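Handover notes (outgoing to incoming on-call)

Open items:
1. glutaryl-CoA dehydrogenase (ETF): sequence verified, structure written out, both below. Nothing else pending on this one.
2. Nothing else urgent.
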Amino acid sequence: MPKHPTDLLNIESHFTAEELEVRDRTADFVDRRIRPNIGTWYENAVLPVELIGEMAQLGLFGMHLHGYGCAGRSATEYGLAMQEMEAGDSGLRTVVSVQGSLAMSAIYKNGSEEQKNQWLPKMAAGEVIGAFGLTEPTAGSDPSSMATTARRDGDEWVLNGQKRWIGLASIAQIVIIWAKAPTEGADGEITEKVRGFIVPTDTAGFTVSDIEQKLSMRASLQCDITMEEVRLPADAILPNNPGLRGPFACLSEARYGIAWGAMGAARDSIEAALEYASARQQFDRPLSGYQLTQKKLTDMTVELNKGQLISLQLGRAKDAGTLEDHMISVGKLNNCRQAIEICREARTILGGNGITTDYSPLRHANNLESVRTYEGTDEVHTLIIGHRLTGEPAFR
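glutaryl-CoA dehydrogenase (ETF) structure tokens:
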């Protein structure tokens, strides 16, 4: 029998024993360390930094990267872990995503061997926290319009600019900052391209402040960054993949994890509503005995299973090396869109009790407002898929 009553199609049967072990180990961590406290953390806008070391011990940081102290697990195993983490809370799943899929992935995909050996083992162990600075106050969906610049001054790089909505930046030791910098091509011509830089957060001129009064992702950290004449050594630059393909490859990693994670929030919301409906008596019978309630539960669970199957297909394709960017967009667009509707509908079954932090659906729905927006809005992923279907780019 599947572990979850929402697994109507016995999707669990498609996973190996090793994959299920990763899922169950992560789920146990969520049950023990996150569920009992998440309501308070969310209400008080607290990121429980004490859990970061435990996440590292579980091998969650850079989980599907190979070598350099990383766990080297499969993409499917990573996806299952992200589903369980987000069943706990989107904000805590984001900790893993920012550290592994963004900051560590940036170094792994674009860095030198010296940079990889210097940083990745410490980041996998949770000894160094990283962040990923791409989005700016006026450059979100269009990163090519970023205003952050890097100029060469002798043996140093000098960075100036601002970044916004940067996860974990105020507790990070390094931030991968993306900036427009002069770059020499194969023909010797100098052009301006987007480049990544490893920036220690204690560098002079580098200032971070938390974004407060959020209505979403409250048990996590998002920050503003200001850089004024931030001086870095010449070897701070990530040498490989100049241009937007550098950060975009990292975004694809994060989007992949989101497709799985959103289904964790959706599943947790359905199961909370199912448990509540089975216990709550109205008009001398449980809510679960009414046709309208059963229709809600059925519709939500069918969409959940469809989204989980999309995630599974993405995982198998990623492990086989056949995953394409438009496939990730299908998963990110569909699963976030459906998850937020599922969480909202699950809240209706809980009635007035559903607006408290005693129950998860509304918290999940609020978090998913952020998850649906970052790493590509619905509109961006719609245009990626539309480009694939028609061959016509319609971004401008």
